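User: Could you go from structure to sequence for me? I need the amino acid at each position, not a summary. Structure tokens:
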């Protein structure tokens, strides 16, 4: 082929190449336009055929419901009802009443309280004298607990009832142990049993500390593998926290707000580290001196606080303890302990019923039977 013929072929191919390039550009432009339009219109058949992942919005606390339930516990007309909204006197009173506690923070999502009432059986599996957990065979004990759960459901149908096994993991002793703590630690198999019982009743577990001459800073971390479980919460009994020379049982012990706040912050850290729902701390109390500087106790969004009235006796005595010792120093929530035996000793004529306790101010949200 001569050079002249080659030039002629080359001139013929150039337009063809240009046409193919132009067609390719038009195709790419059309595809881009179609894809962009499809993304802009989620109703198009193009997008309906695709799987588009959107991160779900993070859950948020229903603060309006939380406030409503807190006012209910305070036995006070709910803000926004016709009674509360039309009475200036009631509105003023609501701002001066100690309950609900205005300084307590809103909890994070997943909080148990005040959306549920807890009804707990208390004790130690080794002891018939420390509470109902050790007094009866397992099936009989759980059946009795279910009776109490049903009674509370009937007394307050609007509040779900969550059963609990409140197990004492360190029991105060009258004699020193090898480490000088005056407190006997339970083996893991006993705590595992408490967890198994809670699973059977679809409930939760509290592990309770009677620290003797030890400290919360020493005892709680020994059980961190349990505390890090989402269904395990904590109780601490100041009665058996001994600061002086007397062994447990000779004198009533005490915990200061500084120690209680350490427990709260320790639990808060575990919740954050393990991405857990809020936990509950129960502190037992039946005298002012058992909890010093109580008004300095500071719950967090990750730790809800219950001051549990731990006194026994006739109804008048228990009412006085609850009113003057627990309700008089508001922190966040209150509890009420009922003793199957000691509450019936003379001059008692009977234990408090759920309907009677529903009339207290504030209404206890944690109920414990011993």
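Assistant: Here is the amino acid at each position, in order:
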């Amino acid at each position: 082929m001569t050079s002249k013929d080659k030039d002629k072929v080359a001139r013929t191919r150039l337009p063809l190449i240009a046409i193919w390039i132009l067609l390719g550009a038009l195709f790419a432009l059309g595809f881009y336009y179609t894809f962009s339009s499809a993304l802009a219109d989620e109703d198009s058949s193009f997008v309906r055929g695709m799987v588009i992942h959107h991160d779900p919005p993070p859950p948020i606390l229903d603060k309006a419901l939380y406030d409503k339930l807190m006012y209910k516990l305070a036995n006070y007309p709910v803000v926004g009802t016709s009674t509360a909204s039309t009475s200036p006197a009631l509105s003023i009173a609501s701002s001066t009443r100690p309950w609900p506690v205005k300084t307590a923070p809103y909890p994070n999502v997943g909080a148990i309280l005040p959306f549920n009432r807890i009804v707990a059986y208390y004790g130690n599996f080794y002891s018939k004298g420390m509470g109902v957990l050790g007094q009866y065979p397992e099936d009989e004990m759980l059946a009795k607990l279910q009776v109490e759960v049903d009674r509370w459901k009937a007394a307050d149908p609007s509040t779900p009832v969550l059963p609990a096994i409140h197990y004492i993991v360190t029991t105060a002793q009258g004699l020193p142990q090898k480490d000088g703590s005056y407190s006997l630690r339970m083996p893991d198999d006993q705590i595992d049993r408490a967890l198994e019982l809670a699973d059977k009743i679809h409930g939760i577990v509290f592990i309770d500390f009677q620290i003797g001459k030890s400290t919360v800073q020493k005892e709680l971390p020994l059980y961190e593998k349990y505390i890090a479980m989402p269904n395990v919460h904590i109780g601490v009994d100041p009665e058996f926290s001994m600061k002086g020379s007397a062994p447990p049982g000779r004198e009533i012990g005490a915990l200061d707000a500084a120690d209680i706040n350490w427990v709260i912050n320790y639990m808060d850290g575990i919740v954050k580290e393990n991405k857990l729902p809020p936990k509950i701390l129960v502190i037992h109390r039946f005298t002012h001196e058992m909890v010093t500087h109580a008004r300095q106790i500071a719950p967090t969004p990750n730790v809800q606080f219950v001051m549990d009235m731990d006194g026994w006796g006739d109804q008048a005595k228990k009412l006085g303890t609850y009113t003057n010792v627990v309700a008089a120093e508001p922190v966040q929530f209150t509890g009420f302990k009922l003793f199957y035996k000691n509450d019936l000793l003379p001059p008692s004529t009977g234990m408090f019923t759920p309907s009677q306790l529903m009339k207290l101010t504030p209404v206890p949200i944690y109920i414990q039977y011993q």
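One structural detail worth keeping in mind: Residues 114-369 form a domain with the TIM Barrel fold (CATH 3.20.20).
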